Amino acid sequence: MKYRVLALACSALVFLPGGIVAEVPSVIAIRGARIVTVSGPVIPRGTVILRDGLIEAVGDAQPPPEAWVIDGEGLTVYPGLLDALSTLGLPDMPRLNGTGRPNAARPRSAPAPARGPEDRPLNTSYLRAAGELSLTDRRLEAARNAGFTGAVTFPTEGVFAGLGAVIDLAGKRPGEMVVQSPAGLYLTMYNGGFGTGYPSSLMGVIAYIRQIYLDAGQYKAARDIYAAHPNGLKRPGYDKWLEGVLEAPRVLLPANDPKEFERMLRLGEELNLQVLLYGLAEGFRAPEILRKHNARVLVNLRWPEKPRGADPEAEETLRVLETRDLAPSTPAALVKAGVKFAFYAGALEKPADLAPAVRRAMIAGLSHDDAVRAMTLNVAELYGVADRLGSVEKGKIANLVVTRGDLFRDKTEVKYVFVDGMKYEPETPAPAAEVTR
């Protein structure tokens, strides 16, 4: 007996923020679709079975009798897209511009001037994105409509902005969105400028970062000694600013040109940190520097452009013009150099800008396969969650995007998005496919 997808009589319905209705049958099969696993070869025609929020089978699989079956004829199944750096789920957090430069994360209220690192200025490393999530963020729905099922989301204010989390873009409660926390510590090069207290310059910020990590090392040593032999020792105090620094499995540092690549990578090596560089506007200029340091990088999909309101008569340097023209060639240059990278869309004005931005990188030489990988498996690998996300494989979280046409191509339609096995459709979908029971 056949039913329309949007009129399933026997499946549970969940009404979500934004008026979306999602079906939650426990078993779903997408049958006869093209499957881009990312981690392995493309399956020209196969079946993906989802059960209780996980992928149960991929390929030549027979849907079980209890499954709701979606006809996959003419459709392609991909792993759900992952935004490698964003503020999704944190509606009150200042939006990214993705550079980490002084104006990238200006605090909403000016802090009291600090005298030195002991005052812990611009440090909210204890702030956890996982504890600040909100399902009321209207961007979640727009991101799902563009094919995103997950993101790595971070606080963005100050120098030591806070601890990020890998999240799914749906859930009944905010806590259900969290896949991994903490995912890393987001740092910027923000400084208040001369006369605003410590730190007041770029070099001051870098010195401050060094001092915080020196303090954290001493704090950890004292804490460990006390934990091992507390009798007869004065207990060390609790420092929430340093606890967050110590807890981070990796650190995100901004870098957009070759000089910044060297500076940030050497800083990471000096402090023995696992570093992810973000920005990379001029990555095309010196991929060999990144390769030499075995760097792992996040490429901003908001390509450089002339600032709005800029004087049309103002002269611009050749370097600025060249960067604006060649920035989309950075991903292809990174692939050629063997540098692992992922894309982030958190600095884009809206999720719908994703496909045009990726197409610019493809026009500049990036293959379609590498573009897909940069928004799926590479993100998961860089954040240590590839055992759960990033590819269409048995046992992984059932986060998928189903399209009519190839991802990122012009006029490709996102038909369905699955998050934790729950199906979502864009607000204005094409006529629904049929299902059988």
**Mean pLDDT across every amino acid position:** 89
Tally of extended strands?
A: 20
- How much of the sequence lies in strands comes to 25-35%
CATH class of the largest domain: Alpha Beta
Tally of domains? 2
Going by CATH, the homologous superfamily of the largest domain would be Metal-dependent hydrolases
For the biggest sheet, the summary is: 10 strands, mixed
Number of helices: 10
The stretches of 5 or more residues where confidence is low (pLDDT under 50) are 1-10, 15-19, 102-106, 429-437
Helix share bin:
10-25%
> Could you say which structural class the secondary elements and strand pairing correspond to?
alpha/beta
Shape: globular
Summarize the structure.
The protein has 437 residues and is an alpha/beta fold.
Give a structural overview.
This protein is α/β, with parallel strands linked by helices. It has 2 domains: 2-79 and 396-436, Urease, subunit C, domain 1 (Roll), CATH 2.30.40; 81-382, TIM Barrel. It is 23% helix and 25% strand. The chain has 10 helices and 20 strands. The chain has helices at 139-145, 202-228, 240-247, 258-270, 287-292, 318-326, 330-337, 354-363, 368-374, 377-382; strands spanning 2-4, 13-15, 21-23, 27-35, 43-51, 54-59, 68-71, 76-79, 81-86, 148-153, 160-168, 178-187, 251-255, 275-279, 296-300, 340-344, 400-404, 413-419, 422-424, 434-436. Strands 1, 4, 5, 6, 7, 8, 17, 18, 19 and 20 form a 10-stranded mixed beta sheet that branches. An 8-stranded mixed beta sheet has the order 9-10-11-12-13-14-15-16. Mean pLDDT is 89; it is low at 1-10, 15-19, 102-106 and 429-437.
